[in-house]
Amino acid sequence: MHADKDKDKLLARVRRIKGQVEAIERALIAEAESEKILHAIAAARGGISGLMGEVVEHHVRHHLADDPDHPGVLRPQAQQALIDIFNSYIK
User: Fold this and answer.
1) Which of 61, 52, 46 is nearest to 85 (CA)?
2) In whole angstroms, how far apart are CA 48 and each of 44, 77, 89?
């Protein structure tokens, strides 16, 4: 990431996700009701998806922009890298 502000924001998100995953672990250890565990999993998944969205937006804005050597042409390597990441993410 390029700016400290963005880095701090993303790290705060990661720390919240970490807390959500730890809540899942605690619920499993305590043999909590499955509904509670499912809610905790859904919250963690939502956090991961939000993080992914922010990082993808940054990537698109800063790495898929026009190739400076060829205005109007997107960088094909960066496009393929993003496609590969998405394919692994949705599996």
Assistant:
1) 52
2) 6, 25, 11
Question: Which residues touch 56 (CB under 8 Å, ≥6 apart)?
Answer: 82
Residue 47: predicted pLDDT: 95
**Plot region of 34 (φ>0 → left; ψ -120 to 50 → alpha; else → beta):** alpha
List, in sequence order, the alpha helices (H) in 1-91. 4-29, 34-63, 76-90
pLDDT in tens, 19-71: 999 999 999 999 999 999 999 999 999 999 999 988 888 887 777 766 666 66
Q: Residue 12 is which amino acid?
A: A
- The pLDDT, as a whole number, for residue 67 is 62
Q: How many CB atoms sit inside 10 A of residue 44's CB?
A: 19
Task: Please name the helix (run of DSSP H) or strand (run of DSSP E) that holds residue 70, with its range, or none.
Answer: strand 70-74
